[in-house]
Amino acid sequence: MTIAAPGWHAMGNAKHVATVGPLPLDPTRAAEYIAFYIATTFQPGLSSFVHQHPGPEAWFIVTGEQCLETPDGALPGHAGEGFVVRGDLPMIVYATGTEIRRNFALVLHDATKATTSQVDHWKPKGLCHRS
Q: What CATH number should be reported for the domain whose range is 33-118?
């Protein structure tokens, strides 16, 4: 994963798989940002805890399916797709379908804040259908 200007591609033998973005980032919001990269694997039926990030999150689904539920609704996704959500958005992610869900994600956030915080002020409504 690389943070770069639109249209950027790696040189050499690297294979460009996807462009995910742009990230909705307000450069006046923080003096310094941290890029937090994550690779996760979920068995079908598993989910994260309800959480939020203090900056935008971008992810690319390598295999399987997932559904992200937020107060704004459900965002289903499949292998080969990438998505971006704004920061400070309560969320829970479910591995849906029948295949293991693997993804790469980036959270770009204010360096003075924790990357992830547990949320207790919002409860999911069950908008994501798990197989």
A: 2.60.120.10
